[in-house]
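Here's what a typical entry looks like (Sporulation related domain-containing protein):
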Amino acid sequence: MKRIILAAIVLGLAFASCKSKKELAQSPYTTDPATQPKVFTVPASDTQTQAQPQPQAKPEPVAASNEHVAMRKEQVSFTNQEDKVKNESNNFFVIIGSFSQLSNAKNYRETLLNKGFTPIILHSETGYYRVCVNSYQNESDARTRVAQVRQTYPEYSDVWLLIKD
């Protein structure tokens, strides 16, 4: 009899302890995953993708936009004397890449030359080699070039301005 009562108590505790009494943490920033809408996309069928091709319009000149452009003031020196002669009077530099090793900056410069840019390499006071694609005397021209690079070359959307200190 004692064994039956003990077995009933053990089984009762086992079943009672399996149930979770916890509730999901409630926060104004989280929602119940079961109530969230399911989002999916349906791939376009071949008939939709083979619709009439759109004529390609000529890219229009880009005006300086109000889009955020990262800017930084640094003292820089030119790594090439010819670049220094051509760009020394400019104060705004459109930077497309930064490297801690000069060899990496030179390799990147070669890549950009193949894409039609005329890059120069600057050595900043921070020790980085900045790869510049254009330099200007006034800020609005430099901002216009940044917007143009971002529109024409989406892979270089992180282009920024260096202001010579």
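The mean pLDDT is 79.

More examples are in the samples folder.
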